[in-house]
Every structure is written in structure tokens, then in C-alpha cells.
Amino acid sequence: MTEAVIDLNADLGEGFGRWRLTDDEALLSVVTSANVACGFHAGDPVTMRRVCELAAERGVRIGAQVSYRDLAGFGRRAMDVPPDELAAEVAYQIGALEVFARAAGAAVSYVKPHGALYNRTVYDTAQAAAVVAGVRLAGGLPVLGLPGSRLLAAAEEAGLRAVREAFADRAYTAAGTLVPRGEPGAVVEAADTVVSRSVRLARDGEVTALTGESVAVGARSLCVHGDTPGAADLAARIRSALERAGLRVAAFA
User: Fold this and answer.
1) DSSP 8-state secondary structure symbol assigned to residue 57
2) N or C: which end of the chain has fewer CB within 10 A?
């Protein structure tokens, strides 16, 4: 029987200057993969360097969390960026993070879009292809994304490893996509519910949609949002519950 393995990832380095949103040090004691903000939606050189050093020390895989250029909107505003420009900006962000990862004795192991870019590449073939083109410009890395998305399809077509991801604290539609953040119930806030959902997602590959349907969501990685209040404690509870359920928590990259 094949051992059940799940990666636990979180969005980290989401600060800028003196402002910090995520408890990077605490989360890096729990997660196995760190999606590090690369400066376009959050993050600055000092923050990126610090998070890479902490991740390398703790054996956590470093991922580039690329975004539309939108510091003011935290990367969550819809934008129309020409494909060539988007590809270059994705490669730029990966390259910036790679400098700090290598200085810490590690490397960037994968790429995950953030916010509006993540959601856009679920259904927009051109934007998904542009992100993948940027990843290839930066050397070609595994791409983390939503199952069934245009992004993962484009990654596979380009010969890149496509890694499916599920969300512990986000509501799903009956189609298996995420409920938009602006809609009621989009974020699951009850900690006990998030923990039980996480085990079901990782062990059984399914989740209950906001409208009540059971939805298949096979994933190799499970995301806990780092900007959620109490995220580090919640991530620790999730990891403990996963391990009690017989799953091995380990990085995919």
C-alpha cells in the first residue's frame, strides 16, 4: 500500500519595511514549503533574505510566490497585463528570490502565483501560458496550482511538473474552484472546521462545497494562509491532526 504523503505550505514574507503581516518564524517551524512573497504584492529584499535564511536553516522548501505588480492592493486586484510583460515579471520575481535562496545555501524549488494572478490562471489560458513562460525563462521549476486549472495544464504542456494544491481555510464551489474572497463564507474561520477539512482533503481527496455538494479535490500540497489570525497555531494543529490520521507531512519538491 502506498504511503499517504502531504505537503503543508503557507504564504510567508508578506510584509514591507517595518510592516509585517505573517509570523514567518513560527510558521517555518511547522510547514514544509514556504511561498515567499517576491516584492510585487508584498515583501522587500530584507524580508526575502530573512525568510530564505530561516527556511534554509529549518529544511523548509522555498517557493517563489509571484504576483501582479500591485503592492497597494496586496496582489488581489484584477489586472490585464500583456503576456510578454507578465512572463518577464514572473521571471524577474523568481530571479530576485533565487539570489537570497542561494545565499542561504538553498534554492527556489517551485513557483506559485498569488491572489488575483492565481485566480486568473485558473480559467485564463493566455495568462496561464504567460506565467509558465516566465517560469521557463527562470530555468523551469515545478508549478503549484489549483487542480483542473489552465495554469497546471500549461505547465504540463511545457514539460514542467504540475503540483495540485488544496486550501484548508478557503470555501469551494461545486465546480472545485475557490469561492471569491468578496463573497460571504469565502474564508473558513472556525479552527476546528479548518482542521477537520484538512484531514479530509489530504486523506480522502474531497471537500464539501459551500453549497453542500461533495467535491473531489486530489492534491499533493495543502495551503494554510499565513495572513490568517493565529495562522501558526492553526498550522500546528493541522499538522498534528494529519500525522495522527496516518499521513506523512513532507515537501513535494
Assistant:
1) H
2) N
